[in-house]
Write a structure and sequence with these properties.
Elements lengths: L12 H28 L8 H28 L12 H23 L8 H16 L2 H30 L4 H14 L4 H21 L3 H21 L4 H5 L3 H22 L8
Helix pairs in contact: 1-2, 2-5, 3-7, 3-8, 3-10, 5-6, 5-7, 5-8, 6-7, 7-8
């Protein structure tokens, strides 16, 4: 049997602790950099969209590096690396409509979460304030949401967590679900939690079946690009608002799209992939 060049690591509570350690170190570094900028240059870096972009990159890089050096290299003797192979054209024709269908389903469920009231109202205003800083700089938003987030987040949640859990003997559907819930939680608010968890399940399924991180990265970027285009050109945050369509109609379209292409991708697409 040909030996795989990809390390066979596991992800468990200790792996989670190492990722959290990387997150803490990166966050502390970013905070001190922000304070230093305010003291030395008299500029509040933390209010600058580009600083948020750089800070996110630093945090994600330190999380990945911590897992690589403290777990993967120690346990396997190999450095952390992933399969980014492209796939056959038919698979792309199946996964993008499946993803779009789940995007519509997620939008409907998210629309049912309150944005007013004693708790949700204040929380939503705080969340809107955070997003406003990013949206004000379109170049930074595209780089952060459409390029950086898909790369870093897919490496961590699919490449490290999902793959590591299946390597550790966790049933694939449980690993997909758990990594998706963690993916939703890290967004830090109930509105993004719903969509991120649902879409994470699609991304996890695609990664598990194709064994390539390229595909979930492309799907993730597609989702974020759609959101960015809606905000930039319609000043709306949903397809229903942008195109004046009933949320219930979009839900129906989403269910039909997802169901058809999920069936075709999962049960009819016979291509199987392995990591070598």
């Amino acid at each position: 049997m040909e030996q795989s060049r990809y390390p066979k690591y596991i992800f468990d509570w200790f792996g989670g602790l190492i990722l959290f350690l990387g997150y803490i170190v990166g966050s502390v570094f970013s905070i001190f950099a922000g304070i230093a900028g305010k003291v030395i240059f008299k500029i509040d870096f933390m209010q600058k969209p580009w600083f948020l972009m750089v800070s996110n990159a630093v945090v994600f890089c330190l999380m990945i590096a911590a897992f690589d050096f403290l777990i993967v290299r120690q346990k396997t003797g190999k450095k952390l690396n992933f399969n980014f192979s492209p796939t056959n054209f038919t698979t792309y024709l199946l996964i993008f409509p499946m993803m779009f269908g789940m995007m519509l389903v997620g939008e409907f469920i998210t629309s049912q979460i309150p944005t007013t009231g004693p708790f949700f109202g204040d929380f939503y205003k705080f969340f809107e304030g955070l997003m406003a800083n990013l949206v004000n700089d379109q170049a930074v938003m595209i780089i952060t949401a459409v390029i950086m987030a898909p790369i870093f987040e897919e490496i961590i949640f699919r490449g490290i967590m999902l793959k590591g859990m299946t390597n550790n003997g966790v049933e694939p559907w449980k690993a997909i679900l758990l990594s998706s819930i963690l993916f939703g939680l890290i967004h830090g608010n109930p509105w993004q939690f719903v969509g991120a968890t649902l879409l994470g399940c699609v991304l996890g399924l695609v990664y598990y079946k194709t064994k390539s991180l390229l595909l979930p990265m492309l799907l993730h970027g597609f989702n974020n690009l759609c959101s960015a285009v809606l905000i930039f050109y319609t000043q709306k945050e949903s397809f229903a608002e942008a195109f004046d369509i009933s949320e219930w109609m979009l839900l129906g379209i989403g269910i039909v799209l997802f169901s058809i292409f999920f069936y075709l991708f999962t049960f009819k697409n016979k291509v199987r992939y392995t990591e070598i």
